Amino acid sequence: MSITLDLNSDLGEGFGVWQLGDDLALLKIVTSANVACGFHGGDPTIMRRVCAEAVRRDVSVGAHVGYRDLAGFGRRAMDIEPDRLADDVLYQLAALDGIARAEGGRVRYVKPHGALYNRTVTDQAQAAAVVAAVAAYDPGLPILGLPGSQLLRQAEEAGLTAEREAFADRGYRPDGSLAKRGSPGALVTDPAEVAERCVRMATTGRVTAVDGSSVTVNPRSLCVHGDTPGAVELARQVRGALQDAGVRLAAFS
User: Rounded to 5 degrees, what are φ and ψ at 136?
Assistant: First the structure.
């Protein structure tokens, strides 16, 4: 049976004169782009440039929503009231969708970023806030997240489409959560190792955790972070390895 998989990357995360990652190069490789919406990274000019190139290359645009935390790149834990968080997510989603539509496209899905992504794995209230914002804007938009997370559970309960994501370049704990950045094995940077991991996840639905155990992920989409060292070469090798293994690459949305 043939396997179809999405390959996504977090893009548009620079700000003003500060560039982060090579968005245009990655857009030649991935099938979906998680575009920063101005809260953890990105600005209107960057958002428009990435959306325009994504539309030109037929790459699916996703809203990469996060906490309002430019200084911490959205990776700092923050306590935000659920109602306010829902408003913040709605604001980011609507802004990116407006820009994408101006370039002939539209937002096709939503994926939280950084600390918000990790928080919604276990925090029911924060997960519910993200789901409420997406449902209010467009209940037809899928939400991309970690398998078994509160976010995906609540998305399904609300009647939204929940899509499972796995990470090409991040280490996993035995419980299926991501290893904390800075901890041993949290970031995988060797291109050959990353490519082998991705082929295994695509063909067997499993990945080896930092303690050597096997974790079930069954991804619909694989993420290569745009700010990982050597991200373009990583993504290129992942794409090539998946295609060599007979995996068809296509956007899930």
Answer: -70, -35
Domain extent listing, the chain: 3-249
CA distance 181 to 225: 13
Helix segments in the chain, DSSP class H: 23-26, 44-56, 82-102, 114-122, 124-137, 150-157, 191-204, 231-244
Residue-wise pLDDT tens digits, 155-209: 999 999 999 999 999 999 999 999 998 899 998 888 899 999 999 999 999 999 9
Identify any residues that bridge with 112 across adjacent strands, giving them in sequence order: 65
Q: How do residues 16-47 score in pLDDT, each as one tens digit? A: 999 888 999 999 999 999 999 999 999 999 99
**CA–CA separation, 81 vs 39, rounded Å?**
16
CB neighbourhood size of 79 (10 A): 8
Q: Report the predicted TM-score, pTM, of the whole model to 2 decimal places.
A: 0.96
Instruction: List phi, psi (to 5°) of 144.
Output: -100, 130
- Return the structure tokens found at 199: 């082929």
Torsion angle of C-alpha atoms 149, 215, 168, 194, degrees rounded to 10: 170
Region 78-85 average pLDDT? 97
Are the C-beta atoms of residues 230 and 236 closer than 8 Å to each other?
no
Q: Identify which of 101, 178, 180, 171 has the alpha carbon closest to the alpha carbon of residue 147.
A: 178
SS3 175: coil
Short-list 126, 103, 123, CA closest to 55:
103
- DSSP classification of residue 99: H
- DSSP character at residue 59: P
- What CATH code would you report for 3-249? 3.20.20.370
